[in-house]
Amino acid sequence: MSRARKFQTCPRAYYFHYYGSWGGWKRNADPRVRELWILKKLTSRWAWAGTSVHETIAWALEQAKEKGDLPPIDETIERMQRSMRQEFRESRSGAWRFRRALGLVEHAYDEHVDDVAWRDNFEHARSCLINFLESPVLKEIQAVSPESWHPIDSLDSFTLDGFTTYVAPDFAFRDESGRLRIIDWKTGARRDSDLEQIRGYILFAMEKWGATISETLGELHYLSEPDVVRAEVTTEALEAFRQEAKASIEAMRSRLSHIEENVAEEGAFEAKATPSKCGRCNFRGVCEQSVA
Ligand code: SF4
Prior knowledge:
The chain is α+β, with helices and mostly antiparallel strands. 49% of the residues lie in helices and 11% in strands. The chain has helices at residues 2-9, 11-20, 31-40, 45-67, 73-93, 105-108, 115-133, 136-143, 193-209, 235-253, 275-279, and strands spanning 156-160, 163-167, 171-174, 180-186, 216-222, 227-231. The strands form 2 sheets. A 4-stranded mixed β-sheet has the order 3-4-5-6. Helix 4 packs antiparallel against helix 5 (73-93). It binds iron/sulfur cluster. Residues 10, 12-13, 271-273, 277-278, 281, 283-284, 287, 289-290 line the site of iron/sulfur cluster.
């Protein structure tokens, strides 16, 4: 889904992210390749807030699995805030250019973000985390043994029509009634593609954990509102997802110069430059087509 979203937004940015930056970590990398690799890892402040919440949720659940109970709420919130403060300082210092450290696109491009906006971002992350800690689903998760939980927020893959597809569902568990619940925590606004994403996770879960359609539920938990949206799980809905995914994969592959070797040329990926897209693009500093 993230590949498809990037490809639709701007094929040139997609090329930079997945092909142009490849090998940028090597000591003798071409300077442009290296720069693309550094820029690709930048994140926006909103995505950073979401990642911080997700990492803290994963940590809290791992703690509960290991120690039998969740850490105290204050400790959980403080842990996330401490980590965000440290990452903010590192990003502002530019450390991400030279070593493994968080880099925010706002710092990289010297964007003007006032203190109120930074504080709002911290507060948004904090309130999403509190909403998770107070959510009814957390009580349902705790009501069953951790043996009914599936790996938390870890990268896995499955085969979709012959293509390796990577997934990282936030959480899945068998609830007290035996249903397999696939959970995705969202910290941003609702997007149409959220339902598509969870259908991909459902296909993965059914294959990986051997569940049937009737016993599987997909849930989107919007933590900032807070609200829960349940994805319809029917043969038709999953088949529609499968067809859309297949068309999307074919559209991306059709641009490759050597499909089997996964080789791409920059010229085959047009730039869809608009002020709003380029203004949010990680690559605006090196892209010749940028109108930011
Ligand atoms: S700067 Fe604009 S045109 Fe260039 S890759 Fe980014 S979005 Fe595309």
